User: Fold this.
Amino acid sequence: MATWDPATYLQFSGERSRPFFDLTSRIGATDPNYVVDLGCGPGTLTATLADRWPAARIEGIDSSPEMIDEANTHSDSRVDFQLADLVTWRPDAPVDVLVSNATLQWVPGHRNLLSQLVEMLSPNGWLAFQVPGNFTEPSHRLLRELATDARYAEATRDVEYPAAFDAETYLADLATLGCEVDAWDTTYLHVLTGPDPVFQWISGTGARPVLQALSDVQREQFVAEYKVKLEQAYPAQGFGTVLPFRRVFVVAHKRS
Assistant:
């Protein structure tokens, strides 16, 4: 299983945090008792939920030991971080607000989990999640194409790539489950700076499984080629390198 590097992930923390706040701003809960962040990562954003709902019990769940260790290093006494797989995790009480930020795309067949997540909610509970919608963009397309090159195909053949669906699909899924649903998408134009910025971005997220599947020698060659392709697809401009990044947002309110 591919591991996470919190330091690499946090390199673009400002850009990565914007969708979280855009998502949670649409949650209408006023005084929840129990709030859970599924896929909490390093926990920095989970702590902001405690700022918004100071009386609530806040939990952060993540399957990455590295991320949970990082979260506990900067632990907020108002948040309890737990190492668990969101597929098998179960709350010990109905959840009033269930948030999942850029996590479900890593779970194969995650649409089948939506009914389970809705069942975890209390009456009038809220489910809010966002997933990337950029998997057909050059950053991902070039990654998959290069990974299937004969020099790397054997090493990468079992790699599972993240995947997600459009807003209308999730809206239909959750409306069928009896929820009132607000679903939309947004394309952010991130202006990145520094050397090989798009590679630095994706190496902390979507490219991890491929890079970690390669041997050291393969990885060095792969990275050199991938950087050239990314530079051609996302040319640097005088003000930086623009990375268009579409994200899909869903906020579902469970009818009591």
Q: What stands out?
A: The domain at 6-254 is CATH 3.40.50.150 (Rossmann fold).
